[in-house]
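Morning run. Coffee first, then this:
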Amino acid sequence: MYYISAMKKRSLLELNRVTVEEFRKQQKTPIIVLLDNVRSALNVGAAFRTADAFALEGIALCGITAQPPHREILKTAIGATESISWTYYKTTLEAIQYYKQKGYTILAIEQAEGSTLLSDFQTTPEGKYVIILGNEVKGVSQEAVDAADNCLEIPQFGTKHSLNISVCAGIIVWELFQKLKISSNG
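And here it is:
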């Protein structure tokens, strides 16, 4: 049995995506994704792709986190390493200190005592945010949690205690993106 749908997938041309040059000039969402010693270059590439999708300000790569050009990053980023600006920091604390001096609110994404549920976190219209995503095994380092302004936690109801970094990045960025757009519009 076949169904006729009123929906038709759009072709790449119909999506009317901006060029890399146009992307670099457009207003950015005031969020930086900071990767704290992320082991998988595939996760790094996925973070670049998410950052591109929501026109984020950039990515901070810290410690052992792989840097472009790297085959596995390029595989999942699918060109986003060309559009998203990124900086490497030897340590996560160095990056945190830099962004604090620039007026960013630092948000560790971690299950921690005193954390704020993502749904309860409120942005401000003038807010700028750094979200710290941690190592696949150890999570966000305790020193980064200590240096953060707040910890955000994604509620989970299953048997596993964590989400993959790329999934976590997508959830956090989407939620903050919506809140920033709502707070800046009204």
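The first helix runs from residue 20 to 25. Good start to the day.
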